[in-house]
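Margin note from the TA: students keep mixing up input and output lines. Inputs are the sequences; the output is the structure of the whole complex. Example:
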Amino acid sequence: MTNKIKIQIRDLWFYYNTNLILEDIHLDIRKNCITCITGPSGQGKSTFLMTLNRLWENIDGAKSQGIINIDFENGFEEITVPGYPLPQLRQKVGMVFQTPNPLPMGIYKNVAFPLKLIGEKNRDSNFEKVKTALKKAFLWEEVKDRLTQDASLLSGGQQQRLCIARTLVLNPQILLLDEPTSSLDETSVEMIEQLLVILKQDCTIIMVSHYMDQIKRIADTTLVLSNRQLSKQ
Amino acid sequence: MKKIIVLAIILLQAGFCLASGLDAFKEEKGILRISGGTAHIPVMKEVAKRIMTFNPDIQIIIAGGGSGAGIKQVGEGLVNIGNSGRQATETEVKKYGLALYKWAIDGVAAVVNPHNPVKKLTNKQLQDIYAGRISNWKNLGGDDRAINIYTRDASSGTRAVFWKKALKKGEIIGRANFVASNGAMKSAVVNNPYAIGYISVGYVDSTVMQVTLDGVTPTLETVRTGQYKVARGLFSNTKGSAKGIAKKFIDYLLSPDGQAIAAQKGFIPVK
Amino acid sequence: MRFAVKENLAQLFFSGAAVLSGAATLLILGFMILLSLPVLESGLLMNILTDPWSPGHGQFGILAMIVGTLYIAGLSLLIGFPISLGCSFFIQITSPHGPGKLLKKLVQFMTAIPTVIYGFVGVFLLVPVVRQVFSYGSGMSILTASLMLGILICPTMILFFSQSFARVPKNFLLAADALGGTPFQKLIYVIIPHAWPGLLTGLILGFGRAMGDTLIALMISGNSVMLPSSILDSARTLTAHIAMIIAADFDSIEFKTIFICGSVLYLLTSCGILAARILDRRQQG
Amino acid sequence: MKKPFFDRLLVAFSWGCALLLISAVSIIIGFLVVKGYKTINLDLIFADTRPLDGLLLKRQVFGGLFPAIIGTLSLILLAISFAMPVGIASGIYLSEYAPANQKWFFSLMVDILAGIPSIVVGLFGFSITIFLHHFFSNRIFPCLLISALSLAFLVLPYIVKTTQTAMESLPFQVRLTAPALGATRLENIIFVLLPTALSDIVSGLVLAIGRCAEDTAVIMLTGVVATAGIPKSIFSNFEALPFYIYYIASEYSDPSELMKGYGAALILLLICSGLFCIAHWIKNTIDQKQRFSY
């Protein structure tokens, strides 16, 4: 754990149509930490995550203003400037959703999908990268014999780890997780928690979670979102 | 066995035709478009079949539409040959520079369903029927049923001739059912015991009954002798003198083979 | 940067296609109006809308066709609407499982039956029957065409009706059930008040379908040009009129009137669509 | 317990209507089948030409349905190849790119286009032909190409609608998955959205093909004729099954010709029901494998 700041958030406002969701947020997020966000549902926790990779721009009626700076090891860059290249941003800021969302293709292709997007064509090195990512996500042993099988045939926990592997394949510096364990059984939850603790050596992790015991187990910092404000617990 | 012999004779005849009149179509290639008069269609189809069998590089397209459409379309250059069951008017000839080729004579007969006891009409009665003044078969000695009048649309040459020579340019009541071709008229009358309509004599067969008009039964014979007056020429028109395949097609129509087809389909050859 | 070029090209292609689709609609309207202009300019419009059709006397009125169209479409709606309503009750309310599902499949299949088949069966089955039963006319009549059209437009209406029944919020239905309502009461007090805009929309779409059909009217309505006085008279619809006059002389007034027919049909159906849209929004909103 | 009167009435009414409709459809289909099944044989299609010769286009088929079947097939092929790219692209634009006001306008236009009677679309195609004939080249006639283009206009709105609905009904999370991995909008459409919505789109396409196969009003104004043989090029006239049926119904000259009409009607009905079944099969079978449960 370091005290180095990875993300600076300044004057962040967020609206859905005319509803104010986030009001004037100021926040610093530390590098190589697990930052957990909790709070009542429907208050905009997922929305907050989406401001960090600007995924909210894909949602109709959403509007945001304010400044977010991220230090991608070259000093702070303002990711909220209009022309900031989104694909590159989202490759460095990975995201995992509440319900596992494998793409309609095979297991291998799912994990290799981000490589395809950045135009990596070398099959050998791609295979190695996919293998590494699957290993990091504790999935390699379970799927190495059926890499071409359709991803929808995996169990829920496996699917979620697949989605994590898919995000890890590009070695993101920041990992956003939106209640990643809420739809999973106990063993899967445990596995993913273990995995996150290991991952934070390479990544800055920001996770939305409802489970206080989970937060206690893994969080370095806990933030509560309520009344449009984020506050430290 | 008999059937086979008849078939063989027909085939032989066909083979004979192939060798003789069709030689002109050798080496030709392309599309020939024909439209217009629907009375012409059976002859056109048979001629086209022979030509296309002889030389598959020629495609002949036959559409109906009626005489008016035939004249108009050939004039506009939309088709190569425009058929009409009436002589093109002078204004039409002048406007489009049409060349007219008459290749058969045809009568237009009033027809009823064979089950209808009414088989004779006077000219006056026919006019009254079409004008709506007589509206029940009972008044003519038939069943107590309303008369179902069938007529063609304004583009029809058959209608033009029937209207001029049989109805003496009398009125046609708006209640009449409209059909689009000689074939359609015939099938309408076949299916409706209380119908009256008019078709080319070439289309008359056992399924419909031609009406004896003022004592003259419209048949090939009475039309040929001129006894039956409601007659007309069948024309194929081209824009300017016929050229290319169109010329050869018309030449073939006027050749002995072509004339034989016309006769076989129930028309009176001109040669 | 190549990325952006590709993205923009794709967006250009997609939007171009959308513009093309939209333009097609306007282009057709434009052509209809443009080709109606000669008639409009000659000041004959009123004559054409009110005169009888009698080209021999220089009268080219399409009133009889407009009346014929509305008559046939109206009657077919009268026949088709109760059947469709009953069938959609059957599908959604009376027996939503088993038989209802089967009926829905059949109705969907009906949309795939070509109209020319309805016309063909009409000519050789329905026309003789109508002639025999009523001992009047040729059997080709408004009634004959309306009977066939009534069946033809059923799937349009049934599918729309059952969809709008299905859109009634589930908790309302549950509430009615919990209060001990019978299916009939549920229908009258919950479903109909909620689904009426959908019913009306289905009705409009059915009417549009009946009005827009050419083949059935052309084949079995008899195509006479008189103002019909009874449902056993034959009549001509605007669509059949276009099909029949298309072969006429291009320069003649009769030919030009078919564009008036086209414009009238276009405008009537677009008004229907607009109304359907407003109603649809009402049910959703 | 006895059901209340109105409930029994409701049940009786709905059963009555259902039975009425079912019997009407069965009568229509049954009539065709009973009258027409005997005519279904190779002679109906190839007449006196040897089937193989006809199929290989060695000899023209006269008096059989072969040219009409080929005409209908080429019509479908052409019309769909015009309408498919434009329709799918417009559908994508409407669901993925268009701002609200444009979406409103374009989908209204598409709805109106879908509502226009097909004969008006045919009249449009016809007048375009006359227009081109007068002002561009007097070698332009009503022909296969014009018919196919007009038909494309007719089925375009179906394709646009099904594509748009298929894309819009994709769950929210599916739409966000690829962008979260750094995919651009286009990559998201090509790699994720289209493949996921594919089964719906394809079944819509098959239904559009059915529309092309059955439509008569458009083609009778734009180039179909009773006798043309196999179309030699897209600029020639052609025959088509539905028009053949219409033509026979109104102009048949003898009972044997009429029987061919029954045969043609039955064949067309078979083709259209076949297409319907294929569309359903695609929607139901492929769907379950492709669609993800999240």
